[in-house]
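Study this chain:
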Amino acid sequence: MEQQPIVPDHRAGASALAFLAEASSVLAESLDYQATLRRITQLAVPRLGDWCALDLLADDGRLERLAVAHVEPERVRWAYELYARYPPNPNAARGLWQVLRSGQPELYPLIDDALLVASAQDAEHLRILREVGMTSALIVPLRARGRTLGALSLVAAESGRRYGPADLQLVAELGGRMALAIDNARLYREAAEERERFRTTLASIGDAVIVTDAAGRVTFMNVVAARLTGWAPEDAAGHELPQVFRVANEMSDAAAENPVERVLREGQVVGLANHTVLLARDGRAIPIDDSGAPILDESGRVTGVVLVFRDITGRRAAERALQASEERYRTLVDSIPQITWVLTPDGAVDYLNRRWTEYTGLPAETQLGQRWVEVVHPDDRPGLLASRTAAIAAGEPYEATVRLRRADGAYHWHLVRVVPLRENGTIVAWFGSATDIHAHKQAEDAQRLLAEATTVLASSLDVEANIAAVAQLVVPRLADWCTVDLRRPGGAIETAAVAHSDPAQAAQGWEVLRRHPIDPHIAHGTAGVLRSGRPELVSDVSGEQLAALAAVPAHAQLAGARGIGSWMCVPLVARGAVLGTIALGAAERGRYRAEDLALAEELARRIALAIENARLYHDAREAIAVRDQFLSVAAHELKTPLTALLGYARLLQRRQRQAQTLDERDTRALQTIVTQGVRLEGLINLLLDLSRIEAGRLRLESAELDFAALVRRAVGEALPGLDEHTLTLEDAGEPLPVLGDALRLEQVVHSLIQNAVKYSPAGGAVTMQIGRQGGQAVLTVRDEGIGIPEEALPHLFERFYRAPNVEPLNISGTGVGLYVVREIVARHGGTIAVTSAENQGSTFTVHLPLATQPQS
């Protein structure tokens, strides 16, 4: 039967008020708003509609269907399944989501098929909506404190009811009361949760917490506070705080002011003074720190105090340990030989250790900030400050080598290292150290100077030019000025080099010494060192000492102009003879010490050795020239009578073969004369060749020749003279054209054959091979003789060299033949090499460039 719409008559108004009163009673029964709201939906069916649904918005914006009611309870489950299958469209222009977005209710007095078609999400959905048979509907938002919390939906179906404005007004009033109930329940729940979280937090935090009321009486105490004070929370409740929380000064034992009294008096956060102890109920004295804060109501009135305190026994122990550690650290850094310091983050000096004062003679307190730079050598300051600034800006460690001034005024080299200390990525300090590396730096510089000087001295045989170059090396690395003087025959002293950091001063020094040579009879200075052979060192030159060092007034004026503050003079000694001196001067007083003198002496030894070596080389060259001249003359002089001697001997041999006038013994004697004459002629020829090579007069007549044919011819000439040896030639038979001197190349081949025979005294096979290898003609001569010791191989082609294993065998020779062979081969653009092992024979290999390349 169709139900008529509600009309605003007296009876309808009374019914609506009764319904609202009943609903309000249900809403007030419990703070479990979800269960209460479900009851309201059930109360609304069938009094307000056939269907009733309640949807709430979650905190994350999701829509949650809290309750569904229907006149037939078995259809409720079906309604939930339909909702899950076809949830409301969030983008629909009307309906549930539009009400939630706009906060405005929607009324559908008559639901026709067109509305169902517009609301359906697919054909199946439309079929279900038609089956439900909805006739009218309304949706009202649940709003509280300006927020939409959800929506209440009513649908008329089986009853045929149609909703009007009065129905909408009634349901809107119900929605408002439901929203208020939801909001109140949530607020209560949140407040309860907040109170519980507050109590749980206070009970669980590591600090002790006591809460008082406005009169200073304890209202709450957590477990930590109970443990520290010795009061149980239930015992402490209601007591005035000074009874429970008693504090005193750790140093004087005098009672300390209770912080709660100050908070109540001043209305602001306060804290305990340092060195405060809590006097517990059981008599313990516990070091603590604390703070008290007021509890304010909405009007700003103090309604109580929260006191937070903690046991700092461990921290006090850690502070004492840290203080002891810092004391140990300070003692450690004060005891090490390095200078150490601490910088602020911006680079200002905050601490300097005791070594600083001991080294520089300056109190650390006066050098804080930036004044420390005063002890850095002026030449080193710009580079150090630039590196320091860049490193601090980049937050990176830096390192530098600088000179620092000692208490006695001398500068010593130091290696400076500075590294940052970071906390959570932020630089909070810089730690620096300076290690004295003066001795190492001096040794390093000294070795570098000596190495460079040695290189210069060995660069040529021009002794005076080398000495001048060494003097320039010394200035300014070791001295501000340097002079080298040499002893000449007759005792005169001649200046060989003058160097000064100022070229004008050097030129002036040369002029003065040219006009006024050093007097060799002066007791001190260069003349004195030349006579005694002992060095002199004056670390701090006085006026009297300067006058004693000068030979004439001009020398004194020159020395004064140089500003000599420190001086040393060292003899140049070689093989026990004093060849000269090297004198070094510095303007800085105290500049030279024992280690500097040792360096100067080593430098002087190298200069003296270079001078002596040059003299010896000169003498050796002269001796070699005399020798070569003698050999040349002797060879020429010997060759003339030897030629006549051999001619007559051979003439006698021919007559003997024709007339047979000599007996066998005289025939052998005559043969010996010829053999030894030929040998002597070969030796003389070798000496002549040696002389020509040394004088650069060995000439070659170059023409194209067949090297293979030349070798065959030489082998054929050698065979008749072999008694105990066999000589074989492996020959491919092809021509090997080379450009060369036929006589000299024959000399090479004959010398190698003779060498193989000579050093095979027990006889044996000599094997030769001639052939082509690439663009070269290759000749090898292999014997089975005594071989060559490994250590002799590198020297075998040197002039006058003979292997050590030939002496015990009495094998004669001059050590010149292979030298001449190598020179001849080299002058033909070829090479000769040897491989050998002692007692296993030797193999000589000659390579000569071919005159024409083979056709490919």
Q: What stands out?
A: The chain is about 45% helix and 25% strand. The radius of gyration is 60 Å. The CA atoms of residues 99 and 105 lie 6 Å apart. The longest strand covers residues 411-423.
